[in-house]
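sanity check this chain:
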Amino acid sequence: MADFFYVSITGLQLKRVWHAPRFWLHAAASMSQAKSADGCLSADARTIDGVHHTLTVWTSRKAMLAYLSTGAHLKAMKAFKSFATGKVYGFETAKVPAWPTAHALWLDKGRQV
């Protein structure tokens, strides 16, 4: 295992309920891509207070950026503004946060995308 990890926390909220099928198609494909991406150590998702979150852990920021800019995730990023709003937060850490800590960090430090 690495001495430091890169953690990415995202949270997206649908603009309208009828966007759900499109959102879930992109979300499922992006999660599948993340779980098999080089450098991805873990990928998890959950809905908290109506916001759809992901928590991914990477060997490095470089590995996360390689995932971010290709395949299903790239397609999802290009489409998401038509059906959702959201915030992201990424950081290097020696200790992977549990969901409650990750969510608190996202609330406090997330940037609008």
Remarks:
- The first strand starts at residue 5 and ends at 14.
